[in-house]
Every structure is written in structure tokens, then in C-alpha cells.
Amino acid sequence: MYTAGPGKKEREIFLPEERTITALPRLVAGLAGEDRELFGRIFQVNTSAGRIHPPPEMEEWIKKRFGPADQVKNQEIVRVTNLITLEGALFNRLRAARPVEGKIAGPVREEIVRTQGDPFCHPEEQTPADTFGRVRGKYCLTASNLAKYDGYHAVIIFAEHNPLAVSREEMVDAFVTARRWADLVREEDPAAKYYFFLWNCLWTSGASIIHGHAQATVAREMHYPKVEALRRAMVAYRGKYRSGYFEDLYRVHEALGLAWRLGAVKGFAYLTPVKEKEVFLLAEEPGPELYEAAARVVEGYRAISSWSFNLALLLPPLDKTAEDWGGFPAIIRIVDRGDPALRKSDVGAMELFAASVIASDPFWVAEKIKRYQL
Ligand SMILES: [Zn+2]
């Protein structure tokens, strides 16, 4: 499992550390009885060794690129499975190159500047409105998405072109504006109840337009399958353990030092991330406090050079439905999608069909992101 990249940053990963993903089995063993039991209920951890036998000609190169040869010859792989949702991650410390904290690469910055003056810079003239018009925020307005994911699909266009320059206040405004849009959709179509908000930032995240924009949809009949699957997992968990899944999920992350709080919002670096550096935020209700916490995570992301990301808001339906949504919080999930300066995809067959292969250490992510939540 070699990764290309500058030698220096890979070498750093071998610094002795107590709190790393490879130390997870030991950290779990050290938890107090009830926390350890809860952890075992939700997560399964396996470790395995990956061994290689490199020819002598490679030794020098390996040392330069990855550090001490022994650690490359015997690689520790930690596999974490969420037994409740069946999400899974494979962590390999060798792949866990620490991101270099610094400025965004010149070509990425240039590409953002080059697209200035795009249709989203002139949304009133160059984007369609919804049949009920546009919703205007303080720093954004809505457009009707030209090629829709779903029957109701809006784009929330920031006045700011550069998505990396969108401020905390502007982010909160986009959440609030999108929700006002969803309420207008419901006035037009009361059966549209399943609201979903997302922000894909820069091309590696799937964004086709560079200009800063979030999106929102409202579905009918049933929530999107991944949100519905999470609800079903929560209901099954409650049925089996007489306990709240999300409360327990937070508690085990907190016990391991992976969690934080901002007011009533609970956050943690997730142990089975869907991709790099996933952060979970939980709140009883959606609203400015949660949105502010999400904006702070984005600021933390920028500080650790996570320029391209996917952010999603998962909510129970906006109106009563037949399903049991009791105990389902307002959830924000944010995941890093890799360096937009590199020509590579971070998703392969493993992610699509098996489990996520993860390079970033959740313990490192938690330490970094926490600083921006205080
Ligand atoms: Zn623009």
C-alpha cells in the first residue's frame, strides 16, 4: 500500500503518539465498564498486519518516502465497523499522511479566479427561478436547479464567488435561506416533506460549478434511502437496547476524547467515516446554533487544508409521516474530499462496494476541529 507524495509529511506519522487510531483497541480497553460495553455494542474493531518483503534496491526509497523500513514491512491496519449501521472503515497508518497545513495550491486559486463572472455571479439574469419565485437571504439567493436531482431542487447561490472565502455568517444565512425555500415548497405541495440540504465545495467534491453554492431538495413518499436506513438503524437499536442510538454514539466518542460541544450542539470525529476526516454534528433541532457549529467545522477544515468537502444536513421530515422519527436529531455530516490540486479520485471500488479506505486519523481530526468549536 504505497502512497505517492512528499516524503516529509509521510514520515511524520511515525512520531510516537498515545492517541491514534492504531491505539484504538488499547484505548477502548481502558474505558470505564459501561462506556466499554457501549462501544462494543456499536463498534467492532479488528487489527491486522500487512507485511511486505521489499527487494534491497527499494529499501532506501521506502525509507525516504515512508520512514523507518520496519514500519512499512509490518503495517498495522485497523478495521472499524459500525455494527448498527454497517458502515465500515479501514485505517492504515502508512496511508495516514498528515495533511500539510498551508495555503491552497496556486493553480486551484487561479482556477477559482478564472471562473469569476460565471452565471452564478449574475444569478438574476442567468439562472432560472422556481415557479414560486426566489428566496433571498442576506448573502445568497435561491435558483431553481436546471438539471434536477429531484422534483424540488434548489441552488442556494452565495453572493461570494470564491467558495473558500464564504464567511461563517454567510454559511449560516445559506442554511436559513434554504429552509425558507423548503417551507415555500411545502406550501405548494404539502406531500413534499423530506427536506435535504447539501454543500459540495470545489470539483473534487462533485461540484460542477466553482462559484460557492449549496443545494436543497425536498422529496416525497420516503426520505432518501441512506437517511431512511439511519432511521431504521436507530429504531432497531432502541428496540434491542432500550437506549438512544445517537446519544450512545456520542457518548462513546466522548469517552474516547473524540467529541466536543458547542452550546447544545454535539460534535465528534466519526470512527467509521464515509471518507476522510468525517465530522458529525448532532442537535435536537435544526437552527442557527447548529449551522454556526457547521460553519466552524468548515473553518477548521480550511485550517487543515481540507478545501474540498461534502456537507449534508439530515433531518426528520418537516411534517408528520407514518414512520417513527422519534429521537432522530438534526444531523450534519461533513467529509473531506481530498486535495483539489491533485488529479485523482478518492473513491474506488472499495468505497463503492466494500468499506471506506481512510488515511486520516480521527483522533488527529478531533484535536484540530475542536479548536474551532470553542
Ligand atoms: Zn461566480
Descriptive report:
The structure is a single chain. By secondary structure, this protein is of the alpha+beta class. It folds into two domains: 7-92, no CATH class; 106-370, HIT-like (HIT family, subunit A). It has helices at 7-11, 24-29, 33-42, 56-66, 69-73, 106-114, 123-126, 168-188, 225-241, 245-255, 288-303, 349-354, 362-370, and strands at 43-51, 74-82, 88-92, 140-144, 152-158, 194-201, 213-219, 259-262, 265-269, 279-283, 309-314, 330-336, 356-358. Strands 4-5-7-6-11-12-10-9-8 form a nine-stranded antiparallel β-sheet, with helices on both faces. A hairpin with a 5-residue loop joins strand 2 (74-82) and strand 3. The longest helix is centred in the middle third of the chain and has 21 residues, at 168-188. The chain is globular, with a radius of gyration of 22 Å. Zinc ion binds next to loops.
Summarize the structure.
The chain contains 13 helices and 13 strands. It has 374 residues and is of the alpha+beta class.
Q: What is the overall shape? A: globular
Give me the CATH architecture of the largest domain, please: 2-Layer Sandwich
Order of helices and strands: HHHEHHEEHHEEHEEHHEEEHEEHEH
Structure annotation, total helices? 13
